[in-house]
Amino acid sequence: MNDKNYKKEIKAIVFDVDGTLTDYDRKMSIDSFNAVHYAEEQGIITLIASGNVLPITKAASMFLGSSGPIVAENGGMVEYNEKIIFLTKREISLAGYNEIKKYMNAVPVFADRWRESEVAIKLGPDINMIRRIVEPMGLAAENTGFSIHIMEKGVNKMSGIEKALELLGLTRNDVACIGDSENDIAMVRDCAVGIAVNNAVRELKEYADYICENSYGKGAYEAVRWLLDP
After folding, report:
1. In terms of Cα–Cα distance, which of 68, 31, 78 is closest to 47?
2. Which among 3, 69, 89, 219 is placed 20 to 30 Å from 96, CA to CA?
3. Domain match, 10 and 79 both
């Protein structure tokens, strides 16, 4: 895909937040703001897609200056112009969480109290064991590097992004996605152009069209310049 005129063909860029625009202390650098602002100045719509809850993701989108829809809770929710679309129900994931608790100590993360479409627990439990418990229930489990998310199978960031793109009259062929973690694999793999910041997990890098030399926000800014500059 390196022979394409990306500036001409890409109409939107999706940014993951934690581990992509932020470091692993969840600190955001000026490069993160520059990445979003540079894309917007070139007429590219930017979207924020996060595993975090909607209020946090919405705030990040606003402060960064992103103009597109918001994908929260790993695709479980999409918000645009104060309209929320749910792609699944939290009750589905709660059934899996309740089953997990029968076999291990699974502690919800602080922000889980505001989740509306999935369940997120603190790191620690064996994710492979969790998967053996929840997959027969039609659920999936993903490690974001910050927490373990239990969600309905088939609901992920890419399914949320496709719903967001529908609102814009775009398709996956119009979008580039930038991420770092396991829960970003679907969007990096399935969008027109997938990019991994340098700190990304190995599994995600295998699907990326471009792997940044830099990590976190500096990597995101590098990715945007690689996409849009002649």
Report:
1. 68
2. 69
3. yes
